[in-house]
Amino acid sequence: MNTRTISGRLRGAAALALLPLLALTACGSGDTGGTAAVGAQASPVPTDDPVAAVHEVASAAALLPADVREAGKLKVGSSIGFPPGAYYPNGTDKAAAGQDIDLADAVAKVLGVELERQDASFETILPALGSGKYDFGTGNFGVTAERLKTIDFVTYINDGQGFAVKQGNTELTGKVTDLTELCGLTIGTGAGTTFEATLTAQKGVCAKAGKKPYDVKVYSENAATLTALQQGRIDVIMSTINGLRYQAAQPASQTAFLGEFHRLDVGFAFKKGSPLTKAFQAAVDELIKDGTYTRILKKWGTSASAIDASRINPPEHT
Q: What is the pTM of this model?
């Protein structure tokens, strides 16, 4: 074995060793664990603090149930694992950061309540809302017809589904507009996500087109998905538009964003029939009106996902 081959393999091994440290540039669901602080070094944390100037708005706070106003606290289950939504820039023993963190904190200030944030894996949050474990959940939850059967949503951005591949991929080089373009490939995605649901529901499209079916591999951690892509165990990642765009902007991740596939409204999630939704809608609208909302999205590079007004339980985009 020549020295060139050895050095090449060593470089490859070193690159793969770094992948867990880049977990936060991956996007989907799940907890990235203690690797977050190192991964975040790829992109410095924005220093702007739009939330600092937010104050209680009496008209919005008055929409809260009396017992919530008296307690002055709300429990939020948060899926924290990837930027720009929510991640740990300085380790899991330090405060989380991201678009979802700022928006939830700003809403709480408008409503005059404190948040008790509890980390949770993405796929466990929605089922836990009905039991009262959390008052609401955050995690880039897309509004779908299926989820609307059991969950109430208050929208705050418009994000959606997209695809990414390893840089240099020659099988997929442009925007994916139809799932038949993925036939014969292996797709990695997050557990309990709209991506998993979409891929599962449409798995028959390849057979109808006379093509080899695509294979779906589901991961509960973002680091595992990105590692699988770089090691060639999957061909493409399906995840959020904003997350994949952010990931591709980090040179060390070595991924290429293939564009938007399907847009979805994203919202705070509540148990069905929650008395909190009108207050949250009013709070988001206040943030939009006073400019805080625009500053938060600009801070995290997600201005393209801005909405004009919050909605309660809008129908899924078709």
A: 0.81
